[in-house]
Input
Amino acid sequence: GSSAADPLTAQSKPATSATLAPRMKVGVSIPAADHGWTAGVVWWANECAKLHPEIDWTVATAETPEKQIADIEALMAKKVDALVILATESAPITPVAEEAHSRGILIVNVDRGFLKPVADIFIEGDNAAFGRKSAEFMVEKLGGKGKAKGEIIILEGIPCTVNTARVSAALAVFALEPGIKIVGQQAANWNRQKALEVTETLLTKSPKVTAIWASDDDMALGAEQALAEKGIEGVWILGGAGMKDIIKRVMERDPIFPANITYPPSMIATGMELAAAVLAGGARAKKLQFMPRHLVIDVDLVTPENAKQYYFPASVY
Amino acid sequence: MNRLSSRLQEALERWGVLIAFAILFAISSFKQGFDFVNPENFRALLNSNAPVGILAVGMTLVIVSGGIDLSVGSMVVLAAALGTTAMNAQIAGESSELNAVLIGGAVTIAAGIAAGCINGALIVFGRIAPFIATLGGLAAFRSMSLAIADAGEIRSQSATLFSALGRGGIPIPGLENAAGKPLTISFSTVIFLVVAVVAQWFLSRARFGRHLIAVGANETAARYSGLSISWIRFRVYAIMGLLAGIAALVQSSRMNSVSTSQLGLGSELDAIAAVVIGGTSLQGGFGRVWGTVVGVLILGMITNMLTISGVSPYWQGAIKGAVIVLAVLVQRPSRS
Amino acid sequence: MNRLSSRLQEALERWGVLIAFAILFAISSFKQGFDFVNPENFRALLNSNAPVGILAVGMTLVIVSGGIDLSVGSMVVLAAALGTTAMNAQIAGESSELNAVLIGGAVTIAAGIAAGCINGALIVFGRIAPFIATLGGLAAFRSMSLAIADAGEIRSQSATLFSALGRGGIPIPGLENAAGKPLTISFSTVIFLVVAVVAQWFLSRARFGRHLIAVGANETAARYSGLSISWIRFRVYAIMGLLAGIAALVQSSRMNSVSTSQLGLGSELDAIAAVVIGGTSLQGGFGRVWGTVVGVLILGMITNMLTISGVSPYWQGAIKGAVIVLAVLVQRPSRS
Amino acid sequence: MENRAVILGTRAVTVDYPGVRALDAVTLDFRAGEIHAIVGENGAGKSTLMKVISGAMRPTEGELELAGHSANFAQPSEAIAAGIAMVHQELNLVPTLTVEENIALGREPTGVLGIAVDHRAQRAQARELLALLGSACETGELVSSLSIGQAQCVEIAKCLARDARVLIFDEPTAVLGEQEAARLFVQLRRLRDEGRAVIFISHHLDEVVTIADRVSVLRDGQLVESFARDQSGSLRDARGRSVDAGRLAAAMVGRELGSLFPNKGAAIGGQPAIELIDFGARGISQGISLSVSSGEIVGIAGLVGSGRSETAQAIVGLRPQAGRILLAGSAVRFESAGAAMRAGLAYVSEDRKGSGLHLSLSSIANVTLPSLDAYTSRGGLHVDSNAERATTNRWIDTLGIRCARPDSPIALLSGGNQQKIALARWLETNPKVLIIDEPTRGVDVGAKAEIYQIIAQLARDGLACIVISSDLPELIGLAHRVVVMRGGRVVGGASREQLALRNCEERIMRIASGLSAELEACA
Ligand SMILES: Nc1ncnc2c1ncn2[C@@H]1O[C@H](COP(=O)(O)OP(=O)(O)OP(=O)(O)O)[C@@H](O)[C@H]1O
Ligand SMILES: Nc1ncnc2c1ncn2[C@@H]1O[C@H](COP(=O)(O)OP(=O)(O)OP(=O)(O)O)[C@@H](O)[C@H]1O
Ligand SMILES: [Mg+2]
Ligand SMILES: [Mg+2]
Output
């Protein structure tokens, strides 16, 4: 048969041996693309779905937990065999995930863990490590543990648990450094424009900052622009999450972006791939025995030396 | 012929929303087959739209009175945050779970009413246009909830009872879900429908409803008729607050937690859209709750259909926008 | 005494927004000292509020005509996405950069006007309430932009020219910024102020403005007076589209890219809030652009002040909400 | 008669508006079993006084005296609770409620729990009251679909339904036909005989002379004179002289008035300025053929709901039309009022508040709105506000409009002054054909005479005039010729000679109400 199986033709030729077994249905429930990182998640989900035409994928995006619950319920009514869930928030999605689990649906949980052990596979990014590692890098660059000196600005994301985890881990590191002064700390909602405005204002107040902890690459770009518009030079920025443009500039040794912290939006595709693997050809229970139950995707420090392996020019993010 | 077409116009104006519903239903069933026409899917549809439905019912009353309330989503999150916090405090203080849930529920409802009364007071006594007063509330109430929870989630400490309320329901004899368990009508759906029936009754049969219509259509006439405009308008915002409290209870028990940055976000626009799709005039002075219920179902059905059929998430907004406009288009009044 | 208080009322109604501005200004200066009263800070304040200011000016006209436009933020992102895409295509097709920027700019403006015309057509010929027609646009226009860019960012391929437009400005003699470079009034600020002056002039001096006011104050009477209501209302939405296109150009050139999921998000509420804070009545039939400009500055100043003084982000919404309500409170009309 | 109990009194009531003293220390008594009429020029303060009494506004100074106790109402609800009911000068009904719901509004009969409305009781009451007034409208009909006259009947029924001790009627007859007015007077007398205090305001002074037991005259906010009916049943002034409409008018304006109507000049003959051929407003009127020459004033009479206003609106393109219009001999068809205006047609609407004027805008903006092009230069970019102000001031002088400032909202003007603004708005467009719908509705005698003079003068200057009015003496006194409409058709008319006959009014009335079928050529 043809190798590039088109989902439509596959459906319309039910007699072929490959499709004798019913097509597996997998629901993917993720947050809506409302900033750069989540747009990356949506993109990777669609990319991964294209690689598995043998599966009937349904990708649903939700702006709020309410919408996500509705999506998951609709997917359950559609009798999906597996659900890959990146929760908008952990707690509200737990009950509905629990219900899905109790129906025997394979649950792959990505990034934000449920409150109860209802996921068959859990793939996690580590937000606390994100905060810690990024802060440690800054301390290092500002003079090393105990000796670091500098004025820094902290840009926070939309107030929510992810943000809180990152920020408090970073603050814990900075707190040990008497030489580091935090001269401004504001929410810029993971939004480039908002980051531009906030940074601009904070720079007016404290024009002598050394570095900016932007915690996200969208915000890092906004902060960069604020510096450019003010004509301030020599300040460097640490973003995060591995946006391709930033990675490229790290690779090119741009002094403004000495490093980055990954938090790969592609982890959704990892989850989908695992779900596809478990479902393919049956024997689900057996396969689950050797699948990882809990997979922590380490957040990596991207430096000019290793930047190449984190650069994906085709991605939207 | 002319008369016929004006008859048709009139029928469309009156029943257009039902026709829009039927068309959408037919398309959905045709495109999705059993995935859509499936009791379990309907249960989910009703269940997940119950909170916004409860808000939309209240919004109908507010709009009939000539006002608007943009703060409903923020009232929900504030009420839920306060209620859940109170409940957790009770559990930590070693009350029985039942007690804690009751107190938490009471605080949720009371907080909703209080927020509604603040809106009402600003509008009635402060004489601030409802759009602006509640725009302030939209910002302020959520901000307070963020402050209460440090922008995080408040997880209910009630192990079973609270979430049983949110996820439980009344079994429907003879129907089973995909997992072979009896299908239930969820409590939240029941609450939504009861609220809708009561509100429709009030609007069309009770004095208060009559007075709301009068205030919305011609405030001077209402005042000259001896109605107390202030008190009527104040009450409708307080009722909106009560319903926001109920919606908060339904939501927080269903999720067994409150995400202060996201709960209820944007539901004001959904509620208003449902009201207008249902045929209520934004000018005030005319409205129907049953239309709002159909409007909520139409909006829910679009989302549900788009989710099931896997339409690109990027295009969903366009389709939703188009359906809102079309649903209003079929039932617009004929040119005078 | 009675007469005096009614004089005071009248003055507050007319100049209240300026008084609110002055109070806020005084508080800011007092609390922040030089951080706030600093030409560079003002430059930044004006510059970053120019796009929403341009939208608010258009919104003033729309509201004066008795309408509303909730789709402005989505029009901005759609216009910017189309314009930047067109510009990039030109650059890829090896036009000169100047040509590409001109074509991109023209497409941006044209897309804004086209979106405005769609709104206008739905409202005027479709006879759909503005709130609903533009609620549809709010969803649909952004959805289209997401689809164009896979929800990602569209980066301008113009290396220098486009962003020079966005970041450049006219140097003010004698003033320097913290880095010792001459301080400029940015082009975006200039565009904002020019747009505002033109619009104020139209509203108070030109025939079109008079017609807008007449339509907003009493549509039937305007029709009886021989005005072409449809054409007047259509034009105001088209103008809103034009201004959204201009705002899109200002924004996208400043950011030198378009983030389809974020650009312009929520700016409709900011624009409406600025209009109402400025003393324009949401009922239509009365409005002033200068008030809107002050309203934009008030909103910008709150954000600016909260940022400088490091108020917890959780509480910022509450303060913003309170200031909106207070600013309207001081200038509410006296009880009739 | 002085011994009848005083139910309600005003004690030195003063009301100040910004720049205007609307009432100046007015002290009046309203007695049980008496119809007390208040007359005065437009803007004399009649409605303001009534608003104070009915709780719609608080006086600046002074107070009310209610059964011996002093009181001031903060809200209409308080006045209603004290037994005071009022029909306001401007219609104040809820358009989205039905007739019966409007009548019951605020005091709905309720069922067991006091929550649900008892529909049956509500309908029965509405039927009974409307029958008393001889109104034909259905109790289940929406008020938005009623004509003004019908709506006024609903207002009156609503007032009667209150079972009040004091009933106030502010110009109730302005929008009523003669038959409805007659039925209303029956009701007023009944209310009086039941021992209630009835307050009646009207600009139809002969009505006042017929029905009032006591008449108080306001001028510029002050009480200037009072007349009472003596044993013999005729109104007398302080010196015992009998009072007629002319005497009342003199008291109102503070001088003797000449004749109300101007001399009718001869209609300038020649080519008709406007000709209607088999014309009609689609769905409402049909088969109307009428031609009006320059300099001619043609009146259109008819009962409320006979379709006169709709026909006029169709002529100027405000409604779908059937048939043909010839303007100075050439066929025209208008799609909008703007097109009609540019062709030299003007229509002054009967509904000032709804479609005639922009109440929230200034006199200047109102007067110049249709003719704005004349003040505009540079492609519409510049409106010459000095010229606008000059024009407005000219009209204020010419028509004797009383307004404090030409740039304050006309909502502050009295009804009569608003009517003059509406007239000025259309005269400013320099029309060749002027259609005036109810030109003097709510206008005082002095202003009426002025408006008649203006219309006659315009006709003499060559304007073709169509006057639609429910006030028959007005039509007879003003028009060169009258056509009568009934059910959307022309059913008769009266030529200039016939108008001079004494029984003319009665004859027209009979045709209009279908009592005599007469179809004589009059077009
Ligand atoms: N809201 C207001 N603000 C300012 N002035 C007002 C207001 N209402 C009425 N006036 C003024 O008060 C005076 C009295 O008005 P009022 O309406 O009582 O007159 P009226 O005797 O009822 O006249 P009409 O016969 O025309 O109805 C007028 O000069 C009018 O312009
Ligand atoms: N929008 C409408 N649609 C259908 N019928 C209408 C409409 N408006 C008025 N009518 C009807 O048309 C008829 C003529 O009404 P109208 O009151 O204008 O007549 P008129 O002769 O001008 O009387 P009036 O003395 O009240 O001005 C009435 O039966 C009325 O109910
Ligand atoms: Mg009056
Ligand atoms: Mg009429």
